[in-house]
Structure formats: structure tokens, C-alpha cells
Amino acid sequence: MVMGQNGSSAVDEFKVGVVLDMDSLVAKMGLTSMSMALSDFYSSTNNSFHKRSLVLHTRDSNGDIVDAASEGSLSHIFGKFASAIISGQIDKSAAWYGIPLLVRIPMVLFVHANYHYHSCAIDVVKNIGVQAIIGPQTSLQALLMVNIGNKAQREVVPIYEDTEYGNGAIPYLTDAFQDIDTRVPYRSAIPPSTTDDQILEELYKLMITMQTRVFVVHMTPSLGLRVFQIAKMIGMMSEGYSWIITNGLANFLSSFNSSVIDSMQGVLGVRPYVPQSKKLDTFTLRWKKKFLQENPDIENPKLNIFCLWAYDTIWALASAIEKLETINSRFLKPKVVLNSSHIATLGVSLIGPKLLQEISKIKFKGLSDEFCLVDRQLQTEAFQILNVVGLGGREVGIWTPSTGILRDLNLIRTKTNSDSTTKNKLRAIIWPGESTVVPKGWVIPKMGKKLRIGVPIKGGFSEFLMVTRNNSLNWTYVTGYCIDVFKAVIEMLPYAVPYEFVPFQKADGTRAESYDDLIYQVYLQRGQLGVNHYLTTATPPTLPLQLHITVTASICPVWQLEDIILNNWGRCVVIIWTFVLVILSSCYTASLSSMLTVYRLEPTVTDVHELIKNQDNVGYLEGSFVFGMLQRMGFDESNLKPYKSPEDFDEAFSKLRKDDRIVAASDEVPYINLLLARYCDKYTMVGSKYKTS
């Protein structure tokens, strides 16, 4: 197929070959844009006196560029002496890239980013190619900034296509992750030929064995859409997950059908920002009308950025050939021809290098934004941050290399957001599962090694720690204040820590030795940590009180009113009521005196050294580290008496035999507070507090 503009015989034709897979929707859409660009360029006022006419010779590659550009068929693709190649499809084979390299004709690429990471394509671009789309470094930098500045998301798993397109992006991704101090614990590479069952197996692996819940998907649409549909099917598009897509997928969001968009709800992505304009709005209406005329079987087509790049590519190429002094489309033939069917028989283009030089200097305001090539690669001022919600992508912010993330480009010149957080710079984001809460980025994996937490058995102090075990069902339930604190700390960690509680007890469920033995089990690697009650602060002995409460009854006179009471029954009532008031007053006064006196009581012993000197018995909680601490303070082991519960504690002070009775107790502050709350009228806490490790 040939597309061009009719003109006078004085206008020189400039032939350009276009190779597209016409079964591809993107190719069909791009071809419509190119034909409109030709018409608009040569009908515009600024170009009414053009000297040359750009003619496009289009060839359907049928999905195989190498075959389309095979030896002997080159003239059928481009017509005679084509001076440039435009392509919207990149093949894995080096044979395709060898054609423009060999004959030295410019190759302009305008479709999705496969070429960015293809070694042969890079060689073409460096030598005779032009990238009319955005490069990878900047887009990936923008992509990583979309992580919403969430400090908790310090691990990311890239899911990428196992091709040169996917593998070539990994170095850029790795560098970008390192710049924001984010670790990559695993890389998931999925070949395009992978079956749905194999994708399902890989996603299950990520869901069950990995704690990371932040995924960056770098794939072409054909594979990426399968991944998201399977991820939704197994519940990986639910609350707690965070999915980010590169522009390889984000650029096509407007072209996806409703079932695909439904499987991507909550996904974040970036794509080059296209500013709205009247020119773009008018073009969109014209383009849709023309596309439906050419492709009536396609319903509701939506313009995407590749259509705009295709339009701007033709405009740039047409502008460049107008600047050439002369058009010499001849090819310099080789002196020695070994094979008449070989592409080399075409020779080397004489106009190609000059055309490439002119294209590189072209600058204009295109549909996609400013068309400006730096190192023969299209540049962009900003990236659009999208959130897939409802029927498509919703803009939540703009990212530029110089300003970072902003709600709107109009804020670039203001300082209102300069000191605000990334979260505040973005509009509200709807995450997977219709959640508005930023995912923390990790969960405890369903499989993997767990941290074993040793829990000492403590009878009588269930408020702090209680272990309930059901031997028939083989489960253990651990509760208490200490466990609540431990779980709260684990929840605050920026990574998942799978753990299990292991009761430190004998086979019959009773307490197994002391804290020291528990620590020794950790040393033997039979457990990793121990949850103790409170290894923080201990106090010297709690001393009993000698209660000498004096109850004082005071009589409050009740004066009779001055009116004379003539009725005898009235006199009796007054007398009885007076006695009732006296009794009530006495009881109230006695109770108040008792309460006030308790606060002024003094213990019989106040000094630890006095206890040691008198060899008095001192109580401690059985199994506690306090036993060793008291020994180091100078107490004889025979004078240290254990108790197991608050009831044992109280009973130890009341035993009849002096050798069994304690005169003081030493314990950790939380336990003492509990004991004092229970026996507030009998004991008090005195002395200094001792810090322990």
C-alpha cells in the first residue's frame, strides 16, 4: 500500500518504507495517524509551498518482520530506492536490524518499548536510528517514585517478561531500587510462551512463600494481561497488595476492554504526560471517525499515545526532508557482488546520513507534546501517574525529573508542595481491594521458617502471661499483657516476622526450671527468643506493715429548732433520728480515719542491708531472675523463699513458723503493682529500684 500527497510534477517524492503487523490493533491505529499526519502536514499554511512529498510504502509483516524483509523482497516493501524505514514492531532476530545498518538508511521506531532493551536495536539507534518514543531510564525513574514514598515498602519483586525486552530492563530497575534503598529479594521471569497453569504456579509461589506484597510488572500487553487476570482469580488483587506497571502496559490502558481493566483495579502506573489542548481534542474526534471508516469491525477505538507518536513521527520526517538541500535517493553499489539476491546488492544510501542529521535537529509542538530529540531519543517533560479505578486509568499526580511528584504541573513554579510528603502531593489512591490505606508491603508468608519464641509458664499471674494448652487438639494458646506488647512490636516492624510461641514447660504442663534455663535453651538454638514477663526493673523487698489503727468516734451535736414541739410522737421521732445521725457519723469518721491512716503507715524494715544482716527470710517469684540478683546482693540461699502466685505471696507473710515466714519480698515492678492492687491495705513498696539487663 502506498500513501502520499498529490502534487505537481515539480515536487520530488521521498519514499519511506513502513513495516507493520496489520493484525495488530496498535499498527492499524498508528497507520491511521500516519495518513492523517501526511494530509495535515501538506495542507497546513506553514507548509503550503513544500518542495518534496513524503510517500509511504507500507508492508504487512504478518507478525514476522524478518520474513517481510527477507532477501530479494526488499523492493516489494519499500518500492524503489526507499530512503528511510518506519517500524512499529521489533523482532528478536538481528537480521531485521541488519538491513538498515547495512544500507545506511535511517530507521524510526515509534511503538512500545521492546527496542529499548534489545542489543541489536540499540546498535541501530546508536548508528542510524531514531527513537520517537520515551526511553527507559527516565520512565523507570518515574516508576519507582510512584511508590508513594512509603517507608515500609522496602522490598519489591519485579515480575517481568523473560525476553530481551524484560531482561534488559532489570539493570535499570535494580539501579532505581537501590537509589530508594529498596531490596529485591526475588525476580520473577515469565516467558511469553508460558501456559496459564505455569503462570498460576509462579504467582502461587509469590503468594505463599514470599512475604513481599509489592510487585512491579514489566511486560508487553499480551503477557501482562494474562498475569493480572490470573492474579485476580487467586486473590492477589485484594487488600494488602501493591501493583505497579511500567509504561509498556500503562500506555495501553485506554485500549484494554472492561474485563481486563476489572482485573487491574488498584494498579498504579506511569506513562508520558500528554497535555490537553484544543488541537488534540479536535484530532481525537477526526481520528476516531477515520479509523472507524477504515476498520468498521472494531468497536469503540480509543486513541493512545502510540497514535500520537506515529503522527508526530511523520510530521518530523516530512519536516526533515524539506530541509534537505537535495534529494539523492541513489544507492552506492558495491564493486563486488557475490550474491545477486543479497540485500547488500542495494548498496549504501547516499541520503540516509544527511536525513538522520536533519531529523535529529527537528523541534516542534506535536500532539504528544514538544518533539525534541536528545541523542536521537524523544524527550518528555513529565510523566502521568495513573491509578486504575473503575473503567480506566485515573490521574493522581504528575512526575518530573526536576520537581518530583506534583498534583498538577501548574504547581511547578510554586513552593506550596516543596516540603510536603509524597503522599500529600498525590490525589487519593484506591489500592487493590478498594482500600484507601497504603499497603504496608509485606505479610507473614504462609510457608517458611518461623521464629520460635520461648514462653515461660507462670502460675497465678495470668494478667501478664497465660498459657492454655489442649493436648487432645494439640494446640497452645498464649495470652496476656506481655504477649500483647510483643505482638504490637512485631506489627510495627517494616518487614514480616513469622513466629510461633513455644511454652517452656514439662510434659505434664508444669513450669520447667527458671529463666536462666530458658535463656540456655535459646543458646542451644532450641528457640530464638524468649518472651519474659518484664526483664526491666526490679525492686528491693516489699515490706509488711504493722497496723495500729485507732478508730475515733466523734459526736456531732444536732441542734433542735426553736419552734416548740407540742406533740409527744414528734419528740420521739426527733430523738430517734438524732441517734441515727450519731451512729452514721461515727461509722463514716472511723472509715475515713482508717483510710487516711494507711497512707501514713511505716514498714517495720526499710533497708535491704538490715535484712541481710538479720538473716531475715525474703520472698521471690519462683523461676524469676530475681533469685540470682538477690544472691549477688548478699542474701543467703537458705533465706530466699519462693512463691508461685499472689495467694502464695500473701500466705508467706502469715506463716506461723519463723523459718518459713518471710518479712519482705523482692520482685519486678509490674508484679509488685499487681500485688499492691490486690492487697493495698497490707503492704507497701519501699526502697530503691534496680535496673537489670
TrEMBL record:
<feature type="transmembrane region" description="Helical">
    <location>
        <begin position="574"/>
        <end position="592"/>
    </location>
</feature>
<keyword id="KW-0812">Transmembrane</keyword>
<dbReference type="InterPro" id="IPR001828">
    <property type="entry name" value="ANF_lig-bd_rcpt"/>
</dbReference>
<keyword id="KW-0813">Transport</keyword>
<dbReference type="Pfam" id="PF00060">
    <property type="entry name" value="Lig_chan"/>
</dbReference>
<keyword id="KW-0407">Ion channel</keyword>
<comment type="function">
    <text>Glutamate-gated receptor that probably acts as a non-selective cation channel. May be involved in light-signal transduction and calcium homeostasis via the regulation of calcium influx into cells.</text>
</comment>
<keyword id="KW-0406">Ion transport</keyword>
<dbReference type="InterPro" id="IPR044440">
    <property type="entry name" value="GABAb_receptor_plant_PBP1"/>
</dbReference>
<keyword id="KW-1133">Transmembrane helix</keyword>
<keyword id="KW-0325">Glycoprotein</keyword>
<keyword id="KW-0675">Receptor</keyword>
<keyword id="KW-1071">Ligand-gated ion channel</keyword>
<feature type="domain" description="Ionotropic glutamate receptor C-terminal">
    <location>
        <begin position="452"/>
        <end position="693"/>
    </location>
</feature>
<dbReference type="InterPro" id="IPR001320">
    <property type="entry name" value="Iontro_rcpt_C"/>
</dbReference>
<dbReference type="GO" id="GO:0015276">
    <property type="term" value="F:ligand-gated monoatomic ion channel activity"/>
</dbReference>
<keyword id="KW-0472">Membrane</keyword>
<comment type="subunit">
    <text>May form heteromers.</text>
</comment>
<dbReference type="InterPro" id="IPR028082">
    <property type="entry name" value="Peripla_BP_I"/>
</dbReference>
<dbReference type="InterPro" id="IPR015683">
    <property type="entry name" value="Ionotropic_Glu_rcpt"/>
</dbReference>
<dbReference type="Pfam" id="PF01094">
    <property type="entry name" value="ANF_receptor"/>
</dbReference>
<dbReference type="GO" id="GO:0016020">
    <property type="term" value="C:membrane"/>
</dbReference>
<protein>
    <submittedName>
        <fullName>Ionotropic glutamate receptor</fullName>
    </submittedName>
</protein>
